């Protein structure tokens, strides 16, 4: 029998929460959207499966909504750090399987980890980092932090690489970074031949230590 699709609850329908809720709904998932502000709820009423106005720091209200039965609950309350922490504690107490929480800053994130959030996300910080990487090296199209030490970057092949192959570029020896794949004409090749020449619009997907990636980005930076 086909496994039924995951069910999600999103608490806090600011820009972040509502975009998570909308995307999941568009992908065909069942979404319960919760916000204490009836206007925010109204905005999503016709998009998600259920949209309700409730205060997530009210344990009884969360119980009544059957929050425990959702596979994943996303807490996207930003400014009110106290409400975000209380909500996470309540969800934890109610036995929610997986809790993902948006943190406002590092300290908020630390508290959330301590009280048992399964994943803490920092959308503003991460987007700031991406923009900064792109400013240092406009060839960097994407930057994904895997941990505090390692990242994956998508880099448009800089002109210094055109006509050269991966063997000659020797990125592994020079920067201790690994080219995982090369994207050409929209197609991802995960076993790109080491002796094939790179072309103008190729995009390299590279994994490495953050400081080594930055060193490589700077070495290949072009105006
Ligand atoms: P974003 O950056 O995603 O727009 P934000 O980080 O500025 O959001 P807020 O606007 O402070 O975050 O909060 C997001 C939403 O969470 C708001 O719509 C707010 O009404 C809702 N919210 C705040 N506290 C609670 C609560 N206790 N219960 C339910 N919803 C809440």
Automatic annotation (TrEMBL):
InterPro entries: NAD(P)-bd_dom_sf (IPR036291), RCK_C (IPR006037), RCK_C_sf (IPR036721), RCK_N (IPR003148), Trk_Ktr_HKT_K-transport (IPR050721). Residues 5-121 form the RCK N-terminal domain. GO terms for molecular function: monoatomic cation transmembrane transporter activity. One of its GO terms (biological process) is potassium ion transport. Residues 138-222 form the RCK C-terminal domain. PROSITE patterns: RCK_C (PS51202), RCK_N (PS51201). This is TrkA family potassium uptake protein. It comes from Cohnella thailandensis. The lineage of its organism: Bacteria, Bacillati, Bacillota, Bacilli, Bacillales.
């Amino acid at each position: 029998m086909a496994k039924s699709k995951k069910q999600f609850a999103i608490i806090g329908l600011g820009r972040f929460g509502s975009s998570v809720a909308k995307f999941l709904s568009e992908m065909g998932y069942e979404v319960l959207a919760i916000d204490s502000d009836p206007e925010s709820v109204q905005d999503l009423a016709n998009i998600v499966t259920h949209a309700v106005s409730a205060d997530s720091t009210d344990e009884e209200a969360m119980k009544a909504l059957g929050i425990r039965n959702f596979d994943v609950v996303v807490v996207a309350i930003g400014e009110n750090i106290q409400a975000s922490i209380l909500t996470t504690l309540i969800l934890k107490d109610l036995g929610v399987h997986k809790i993902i929480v948006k943190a406002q800053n590092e300290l908020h994130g630390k508290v959330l980890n301590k009280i048992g959030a399964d994943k803490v996300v920092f959308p503003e910080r991460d987007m700031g980092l991406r923009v900064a990487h792109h400013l240092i090296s406009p060839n960097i199209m994407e930057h994904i932090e895997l941990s505090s030490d390692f990242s994956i970057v998508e880099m448009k092949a800089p002109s210094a690489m055109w006509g050269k192959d991966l063997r000659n570029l020797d990125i592994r020896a020079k920067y201790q970074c690994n080219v995982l794949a090369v994207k050409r004409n929209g197609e991802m090749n995960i076993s790109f031949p080491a002796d094939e020449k790179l072309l103008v619009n190729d995009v390299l997907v590279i994994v490495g230590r953050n400081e080594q990636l930055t060193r490589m980005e700077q070495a290949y930076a072009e105006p």
